[in-house]
Model the fold of this input.
Amino acid sequence: MESRTIMGLAVAFVVLLLGTGVIIYQAIEGWSWIDSFYFTGVTITTGHSGLEPTHDTTKIFTVFLGMASVLMFIFIFGNLVAYYLGFLKESRPKRAAKPIKRRKGGK
Done:
């Protein structure tokens, strides 16, 4: 897959996580849009904020949101490494194959 497509998928996944988190926390916890966005962003990046979910549903959702964000960062990091390694491989100078010299006498 092309690197632009992979990075596009990663950005889409981040937006999906943020959007889903904001909607869930706003609807179930009754937090403001800003508080929901803040909590979701902090949960995805560092995992800790001053807010705490009070409903069992959002507590469980927060656990899955955290796991999804870890998988997202693994995906992004893995693809960045693969891109970098591919870039290194492509940027190496190509060596010309040396012709095999045959010895006199058949051996």
